[in-house]
Amino acid sequence: MQKDELKNNILKANINLSLKDLDDVKCDSCGNLYFDSQIRFKRISPLYTQNNKPSFVPVEVFICKSCNKISEELNPHIKDLDEK
Ligand SMILES: [Zn+2]
Q1: Mean pLDDT over all residues of the chain?
Q2: Count of H helices and E strands in the chain?
Q3: For residue 35, which of 77, 76, 70 has the smallest C-alpha distance?
Q4: Which of 9, 27, 37, 49 is the most buried (most CB within 10 A)?
Q5: From the CA of 73, how far away is ligand 1's center (Å)?
Q6: Using one digit for the tens of pLDDT, what is the confidence trace for 40-59?
Q7: pLDDT of residue 78
Q8: Which residues surround ligand 1, an ion (CB under 5 A)?
């Protein structure tokens, strides 16, 4: 069997999985299962836009509904949002 063919078969098998077979993502600090979706915006300076007006990039961030912690697992992009 070709490597790609094997990969394909694994993908098809995954589609038949039921949600109850899948692991829950839990909050890193309190174990809660529910998250709120929040939007954070980055501003693009008029210097870089076509019409010389500021523009905005929405970034979705998932926050624990119980303790408000930002989940690192669900938000791998969060590290790129702030200066180090
Ligand atoms: Zn939490």
Answers
A1: 87
A2: 1, 2
A3: 70
A4: 27
A5: 12
A6: 999 999 998 889 898 999 99
A7: 85
A8: 27, 30, 32, 64, 66-67, 69
The residue among 60, 61, 65 whose CA lies nearest residue 26 is: 65
Contact 66, 27 (CB under 8 A): yes
Dist. CA 67 → ligand 1 center (Å): 4
CA 10 from chain centre, in angstroms, equals 23
End-to-end CA distance of the chain: 47
Residue with tokens 């590290």: 79
Residues 48, 2: Cα–Cα separation, whole Å: 47
Distance CA 84, CA 76 (A): 15
Lookup: tokens for 62 = 């998932």
Residues 1-14: pLDDT tens digits? 566 776 666 666 66
Query: Nearest Cα to 61, choosing from 77, 82, 42, 84?
Result: 77
Q: What was the pLDDT predicted at 19?
A: 86
